[in-house]
Amino acid sequence: MIIRKEYLHQLEQWKDQKIIKVITGIRRCGKSTLLQQFQDFLIQTGISEKQIIAINFEDLAFEELLDYQKLYAYITARLLTGKRMYVFLDEIQKVQDFEKVVDSLYIKDSVDVYITGSNAFLLSGDLATFLSGRYIEINMLPLAFREYMDEVNGENPDRVFAQYMKFGGMPYAVQLGQDANRIDTYLEGIYNTILIKDIEDREKRRNDDPNKRRINDVTLLKNISRFLASTVGSPVSLNKIAGYITSTGRKVSPTTVAEYVEALCEPYIFYRVQPINVSGKQLLDTVCKYYIADLGLRNYILPRQNYDLGFSLENVVYLELLRRGFEVNSGRIGMLEVDFVAKKNDLYRYYQVTASLTDQKTFEREMKPFEQIKDNYPKTILTLDRFSLGNYNGIQVVNAVDWLLDPGLDA
């Protein structure tokens, strides 16, 4: 079992606080395991097992509790008078009207509630209304490179990073070593479960009338997911996606594309990144970029010969910035682009990402946007190069692998 120390630390910080802990993230990224690890932590600190109520709604043993009234009765019957209780509800979105249960538990002073879900739909609609200002979201991602490095006991970071870029960081996939066929089979199962089962469940919850469901074409969903996977890091418009799909023989409108793209972002397969004006920091109503939650999944969706080092590296950096707690946008300054504008605690950092700076034209292209920025926030170029690193007129050129392994390089 891989110990997810950083996420455990976050849960420990929020323990016993009067706030709902909501853990979200792509299927099989480790949410259920995290809950189990936190329960083990509670027991180690002296909490009795009787004070812990844990329900995984993917377990048939709890099928009866998919009815919210039965679920509430089950939990309240197990609350101990005068004791702090810890309630863990795993994949709670499977319960119709689950927000009523969560809200009722929240108002009980002696109950500390933790819930997980594999779909952003979890935090939309009634739950967001019920719990506005009363929950914190911990968005969980597959293994960071430093976690991956520890798990495989790697000695050569650059060599292990190439492996990480190829197979991704899904916790169980890491345990399959470098067996590409077994990893593909495992990732195929995740991918198909999300696209067929999870999104179908989401549509049922959205509207019980089958004639009013918006997502009903799995082939179209897969085609759009392939397109997004092939264009990670590139600005992509809905019109462009619609044009691509139409060119394959299936006519589709940008409106329909928007619905299907949203359906792919909600289960955390893809993350949408909106551009921002670097000078004024206003969000721009222009085309967005998309990044995928796991490169192994991308390499499964696409033929492996389509592996693109530069954009794959950019994808890894984006996910790492999220792990480090940044709000991330792409940046525009005039006609130039900054790969990432990262914000935390009202402070900004700028990042450019490129596989190599050995070509002079590439070096100048990556430097140019930074040279146009007039503020003094840190500016960093991340590259796989191991030479010509350092400070160039206030712009730091840093090896990306070292940066991924050592957050202190951003200090």
What would your notes on this structure say?
This protein is of the alpha/beta class. It contains 16 helices and 14 strands. It has helices at residues 5-14, 31-44, 68-76, 98-106, 125-130, 145-152, 157-167, 171-175, 180-206, 218-230, 238-247, 254-265, 295-301, 309-323, 360-372, 400-405; strands spanning 20-24, 52-56, 85-90, 111-117, 135-139, 270-273, 275-277, 289-292, 327-333, 336-344, 347-354, 379-383, 390-392, 395-399. Strands 7-9-10-11-12-14-13 form a seven-stranded mixed sheet. A hairpin with a 2-residue loop joins β10 and β11 (347-354). α7 packs across α13. The chain is globular, with a radius of gyration of 22 Å. The two termini are 31 Å apart. The mean pLDDT is 93.
* β-strand amount: 15-25%
Tell me the total number of β-strands.
14
Number of alpha- plus pi-helical segments: 16
Report the average pLDDT across residues: 93
Largest sheet: 7 strands, mixed
Topology as H/E string?
HEHEHEHEHEHHHHHHHEEEHHEEEHEEEH
Tell me the distance between the termini. 31 Å
Rg on CA atoms, Å? 22 Å
Strand order of the largest sheet: 7-9-10-11-12-14-13
Query: Structural class of the helices, strands and pairings?
Result: alpha/beta
